[in-house]
Description:
This protein is α/β, with parallel strands linked by helices. The protein has one domain: Rossmann fold (3-Layer(aba) Sandwich), CATH 3.40.50.300. It has helices at 34-42, 84-100, 119-131, 147-161, 179-191, and strands at 6-11, 23-28, 60-64, 70-73, 104-112, 135-140, 169-170. Strands 1-3-4-2-5-6-7 form a 7-stranded mixed beta sheet, with helices on both faces. Strand 3 (60-64) and strand 4 (70-73) form a beta hairpin. The longest helix is centred in the middle third of the chain and has 17 residues, at 84-100. The radius of gyration is 16 Å and the shape is globular.
Amino acid sequence: MPLRLKFITSAKRYTDLPDSPAEVAFVGRSNVGKSSLINALANQRQLARVSNTPGRTQLINLFELPNGGTLVDLPGYGYAAVPGREKAGWQRMIEDYLLEREALDLVMVLVDGEIGPTKLDLQMLDWLRQSGVPHTVVATKLDKVKPSKLATRKKELARAAGLDTGDVMWVSAAKGTGIDALAAHVIGLLSS
Ligand code: GDP
């Protein structure tokens, strides 16, 4: 069943977000497939912007479910063409949100399943671990992994992320694989 997500607001700072009873946040490197995944979860084409110009979505986007729970789409990190100062402000905005947002229950860190965790992904995972922010890993673009490589890739990616193989959720927004399971997981988190 799709998530009935309604776009509420975009904000520059977490302090500008409305209160929420429970929140799940999606974070990941630019181009990891985050917008495609949110659109697939909602079964809507244009809810989150899918773009081939990574780094353009630089605001915190907040969506609401019918029960009042919220889903947050954080700006993609690691877009090299962003000038230094802007990049730093941007990073602070994400970090402040992750450290200070009271409603935040779980961060879903998206990792590209085709290429595995990048240095920036590993930095983010380390930082979340050290900061004690509850998080999990979702591997995207499952359809791009050759079936013959899949078992090995699943093990490698989980090991790199410091997780058990079964603890990484795999999805393909393009094919719809794993989308219902992830949507059910999000609903479970936001209903408790
Ligand atoms: P974002 O920058 O993280 O929001 O990434 P996008 O959702 O804009 O996706 C980046 C690129 O990856 C786009 O060209 C998408 O079409 C492509 N993409 C996203 N998800 C998938 C997927 O599940 N499978 C495949 N094959 N391509 C995907």
